[in-house]
Amino acid sequence: MTENFDFPCSDNIHTIKGMINIPASVIDQKAVILILHGMSEHIGRYAEFQQVMGNRGFVTVAYCILSGTPNPDPFIKVERLLCMAIPKIRGLKYRSRFVDRLGVGSYNNKIISPTTKFDWLTRDVEIAQQYEDDPLSGYIFSISGYCDILTMLDYVSNSKHVDQIPKDLPIYIFSGGQDPAGDFGKGVMKVYLALKKIGMQNVYLKIYKDGRHEMLNELNRNEVYEDIKVWCYDQIVKEENAL
Q1: Which of 37, 190, 181, 172 is CA-nearest to residue 122?
Q2: Could you read off the pLDDT of 56-68 as tens digits, one per residue?
Q3: Gap between the Cα atoms of 204 and 234, Å rounded
Q4: CB 192 within 8 A of CB 101
Q5: pTM over 0.70
Q6: CA 8, CA 187: separation in Å to the nearest integer?
Q7: Which of 59, 33, 31 is nearest to 240 (CA)?
Q8: Using one digit for the tens of pLDDT, what is the confidence trace for 218-233?
């Protein structure tokens, strides 16, 4: 059963909209999965994943957020300077194609013979085309949005905050080996090794060799769904055995 819901945003201006999928049987409910979308998109793009995990006994909750995922591009220092300067001239809501090209706007250049502007997202050409045609996806982030991302990057990269992560927290990291945003697996590996270095006891990494940025929308997404299900089940069993 899928239901829509909404609640007021903390800025007292916007309304956050979401969807919750609840398995028909209470007995079948294993856990709750919270789904957050990335930059320049919306939760509707993950309806298939939400439905599949619901069918496998998970309550799934997804809602639209006002910002998105961080950008680990090497031009980040330039972007930070631009994000400080441009608002003074153009305002926080200005959308700069130049700043965008320094970040996510350049990723498709790293794909050989692309058929859409967003082939870097997935090898599934149909989904990439749907993204390009979707008026609610693929838009350029505002300068304010990029400033928020850079601020978030500073926060999550600070060793003081990283050290506060509970060492027994289960973490499953997965990524595409051909994802330019993750430096083709190298950036994701750095995150994994950093977590292991601070003593994380239950962190697992899987890189899908040929996958790109959106593994939940990739050609082998059913494999990805199954891997997530198995990992979640393993964590549930560990938790039950620890009681």
Answers
A1: 181
A2: 889 999 988 764 3
A3: 12
A4: no
A5: yes
A6: 35
A7: 31
A8: 999 999 999 999 999 9
Cα 53 to the chain's mean position, in Å?
17
Instruction: Give the H or E element holding residue 235.
Output: helix 221-242
- pLDDT for position 86: 75
H or E element, residue 122: none
Q: Token digits for 145?
A: 């949005």
pLDDT at 83 over 50: yes
What is the C-alpha to C-alpha distance for residues 65 and 62, in angstroms, rounded to an integer? Answer: 10
Write the burial class of residue 202 (CB in 10 Å: 0-12 exposed, 13-18 middle, 19+ buried): middle
Query: CB atoms < 10 A from the CB of 207, how many?
Result: 20
Are 74 and 55 in contact by the 8 Å Cβ rule? The answer is no
- Collapsing DSSP states into helix, strand and coil, what is residue 223? helix
Q: How far apart are CA 217 and CA 202, in angstroms?
A: 26
SS (H, E, C) 78-121: HHHHHHHHHHHHHCCCCCCHHHHHHCHHHHHHHCCCCCCCCCCC
CA dist 226 and 16 (Å) reads 30
Q: How far is CA 180 from the centre of its chain?
A: 14
